[in-house]
Amino acid sequence: MTAASSSLPPGFEELEGFVSYWVLDSNDQRRAARSTAEMDDIQRFYDAIVARAEQAIVHCEQFTLGQMPPASERLFKLLLAMNHAAIAVEMHGEPRAFDSTWPSAVRITQGPWPHGGRI
Amino acid sequence: MSAVIEKPAQTPNAGRHVIDEQSFTHAAGLSTGPVSVEPYRSPAFFELERERVFKRAWLCIGRVEQLPQENAYFVKDLEIWKASVLVTRGKNNKIRAFHNVCSHRGNLVVNQTCGVAERLVCRYHNWQYRNDGELIGVPDQKHFFDLDKKTCGLTPISCEVWEGFIFLNHQSKPEVSLAEFLGPFGTRYAGIPYFNLDETIVIQADFKANWKLIADAFAEPYHVPSLHPATLAPGFAHPEQNRYARPLSAMAHGIHRHFSAYGNPDYVPAPTSKVEQLVYVQDTGGVLGGDDSGNAAALTAHPAINPTKDRSWSADVTWIFPNFNIDYSTGGFWTHEFWPVAHNRTQWTLKIYIPKTMSIRHRLQLEHYACRWAEVVLEDVTNCERIQRGLESGAKDTMILQDAEMLIRHSLHVLDKWVKADHVADALS
């Protein structure tokens, strides 16, 4: 991909600003990204992706799991990261559990296929 | 509103949930006084646990699916034994375990965590073993002195399988069989249908607390409303009907034990929880759900599962002495291994068995499921490290347990027996 402005499928350009931080390869990386982000940034990402989630899901459903074109796969990874943003927004009202320590000893060493990752 | 709501009714499925007020602690024949915290902070007690519990009990180290074909193997480090263990599936699908140590100069033979091989080679001097442990190749053998290969195989470890779970025993001739060790638990929990065995979410932590603190965390739901207010409480407690998440049942089964967790049958994601709503409009249900109703129906029909057959059931936690949990819910099952490293350090592995990803929406649900779990355990691990500091300060010599914490009391009772008993048979009685 040569220009960041074209890294997502047509129609999803408004999410481009979230690609560099939230498009990640594993469950554990997405969790770490959310846990170390500022709440304002998590909320901004959450609001933007939730507003487009249904259309993004329908777009990704055109393809076989694990065999998406790169632009669609990036969009799918944004949807995966949406779940992590939801933990902060819908459960805690802060980036991670109240009173929890970070960095944490807890790691997701194997996530669901695809893009779950394995440590 | 108190958790004590009313006397048990005769029609458990009608109307509001009724909490059974029989004492789990009395029913298990346990005392009710404060318990010592020395087992959580004493290095001397830890060494007793190593020698008298972990080197005499049968320990679960995995499932048969980790050896998916003939000649498959895996290696597991057991810090509590200070050992590297090699588990193999040989000819005729026989599962064996060995110390992963070469007979020549004591090096570790296999350095991969898993694989498929009929022959295993120590790369120090290329001594070769078959996966049944026999030494079959020694380079430049003629320059050894009276070497008898037949006596130089890998050192076997006692290995038995129950319901697909692989157990090892450190004793070269175990004092009791696995069936005797499992006792009434082994028969009561036999025949449970296990499903989704090929895919797992794995969450691990290596942290600074005694192994029993994290085991205790999963042994009582009394802490759910306070420690897990957002991640678990909405699904596992109820502001009026079961405010303190009192278990539906809690019982000892010989040296093992279980409790059945309450589930809020009316739970739905809050209207503001847009993502949770989005990912739970599925063929699956429940806060910790992950599978379809057909599998759940077969599971809940088993007499050991949710033994009171309460409609407000969410999950059963079973704790196989000393350090293994198998937990069952409508969404499938998961296991905990609590491995002691030191009196104040633990390596813990949670394996959650999940269905194969079927669709985009299903994959999003699994992501939500995994990250909810990780958040729950972050709350627990953080908490355990704090408790360890509190206990090691010496401020308190005892802790006070309520009825819903019966499993912890039973764990300490059994542990005490094992530490004191000179023979395993005495510890089982």
Reported CATH architecture of the largest domain in chain B: Alpha-Beta Complex
Strand proportion of chain A, as a percent range, falls in: under 5%
CATH domain fold name of the largest domain in chain B: Naphthalene 1,2-dioxygenase Alpha Subunit, Chain A, domain 1
- The Cα radius of gyration of chain B reads 23 Å
Describe the protein's topology.
The complex is a heterodimer of chains A (119) and B (429).
Chain A: H1 19-22, H2 27-36, H3 39-60, H4 70-92, E1 106-110
Chain B: H1 24-27, E1 35-36, H2 38-41, H3 43-54, E2 59-63, E3 72-78, E4 83-89, E5 95-99, E6 114-116, E7 119-122, E8 127-130, E9 135-137, E10 156-162, E11 165-169, H4 178-188, E12 199-207, H5 211-217, H6 224-227, H7 233-236, E13 249-253, E14 256-262, H8 274-280, H9 293-300, E15 313-320, E16 324-329, E17 332-342, E18 345-354, H10 360-392, E19 398-399, H11 406-420, H12 424-428
Antiparallel strand pairs in B: 1-19, 2-11, 3-4, 3-6, 4-5, 5-10, 7-8, 8-9, 10-11, 12-18, 13-14, 14-15, 15-16, 16-17, 17-18
3D structure, described in words:
The complex is a heterodimer of chains A (119) and B (429). With 119 residues, chain A is mainly α. Chain A has a domain at 12-91. Chain A has 4 helices and 1 strand, in the order ααααβ. The mean pLDDT of chain A is 94. Chain B is of the alpha+beta class. Chain B has 2 domains: 24-38 and 191-428, Naphthalene 1,2-dioxygenase Alpha Subunit, Chain A, domain 1, CATH 3.90.380.10; 59-173, Rieske [2Fe-2S] iron-sulphur domain (Rieske Iron-sulfur Protein, 3-layer Sandwich). Chain B is built from 12 helices and 19 strands. Chain B has helices at 24-27, 38-41, 43-54, 178-188, 211-217, 224-227, 233-236, 274-280, 293-300, 360-392, 406-420, 424-428, and strands at 35-36, 59-63, 72-78, 83-89, 95-99, 114-116, 119-122, 127-130, 135-137, 156-162, 165-169, 199-207, 249-253, 256-262, 313-320, 324-329, 332-342, 345-354, 398-399. Chain B has a 7-stranded antiparallel beta sheet. In chain B, helix 3 (43-54) packs across helix 11. At the A-B interface, helix 2, helix 3, helix 4 and strand 1 of A face strand 12, helix 8 and helix 10 of B. Strand 1 (106-110) of chain A pairs antiparallel with strand 12 of chain B.
